[in-house]
From TrEMBL:
The gene is rdxA. Its EC number is 1.-.-.-. CDD domains: iodotyrosine_dehalogenase (cd02144). Pfam families: Nitroreductase. It comes from the Bacteria. Residues 37-205 form the Nitroreductase domain. The keyword Translocase does not apply. Keywords: Flavoprotein, FMN, Oxidoreductase. GO terms for molecular function: oxidoreductase activity. It is an enzyme of class 1 (oxidoreductase). This is Oxygen-insensitive NADPH nitroreductase.
């Protein structure tokens, strides 16, 4: 975290160390890959409740992410209030209408066609939780003085990935949603001007009739995403 004034470097012994034999490492890597292969973005959610303690624990895991200068430039707003979710849906759909009416451009809309998205976003109300992720473009001390944050998009991106992974590990599904523009989320979530909304995660259990786009199961093969220089 940011500390005002001169702060000296102090080294601590590594507090946690995992030691796995080579074969255990491979088994652990394969087990994790298999777990993540079961992660799917869904657009149809059940209204089955999810305990706030589960959401809080997943956000706490995201908060352990590495960040530039350890400034942790993120804030998460978890919303279960039905009236607030309805307001977010209405505002998001208003932006989506402009997007699909031509604001996105033909190429972008064509790329989205196989995903099956559209203006209507009922999941923003049905999902028991919405988590709005904010990136803090700069920080503020308790005295209101600004300080610079570093590698903000990278840091928030890592934390968001850890949050999605934590939610999946807890048995939940989620869907990323990025209406453009998103400034309405600052007002709805009562967040300050220097925080930039990055995305909304709809979180919950998938509906009994939930589906995924066929194209979403097509992933690049390993030889396209990995170059080994051994």
């Amino acid at each position: 975290m940011y500390s005002k004034g001169k702060v000296a470097y102090r080294a601590l012994p590594l507090p946690d160390r995992r030691e796995l034999a080579p074969e255990e490492m491979q088994r652990a890597a394969e087990a994790f890959r298999a777990l993540m292969a079961q992660r799917h973005s869904v657009r149809a959610f059940s209204d089955r409740p999810v305990a706030s303690e589960v959401i809080a624990t997943c956000v706490a895991a995201a908060g352990l992410a590495p960040s530039g200068a350890n400034h942790q430039p993120w804030h998460f707003v978890a919303i279960a209030d039905p009236a607030m979710k309805a307001r977010i849906r209405a505002a998001a759909e208003a932006e989506e209408e402009k997007f699909y009416a031509g604001g996105a451009g033909d190429e972008w809309l064509a790329a989205l066609e196989p995903i099956g998205t559209g203006v209507a976003k009922p999941h923003l109300e049905v999902a028991p939780w919405l988590i709005v992720i904010f990136a803090q473009r700069y920080g503020l001390t308790q005295e209101g003085e600004r300080y610079k944050n570093y590698y903000v998009p990278e840091s928030v991106g890592i934390a968001t990935g850890m949050l999605i992974t934590a939610l999946h590990t807890a048995g939940l599904s989620c869907l990323t949603h990025t209406p453009n523009p998103m400034r309405f989320l600052n007002d709805l979530c009562d967040r300050p001007e220097h925080e930039k909304p990055v995305m909304i995660l709809a979180v919950g259990h998938p509906a009994a009739d939930a589906t995924v786009p066929e194209v979403a199961k097509i992933k690049k093969p390993l030889d396209e995403i990995l170059t080994l220089r051994a």
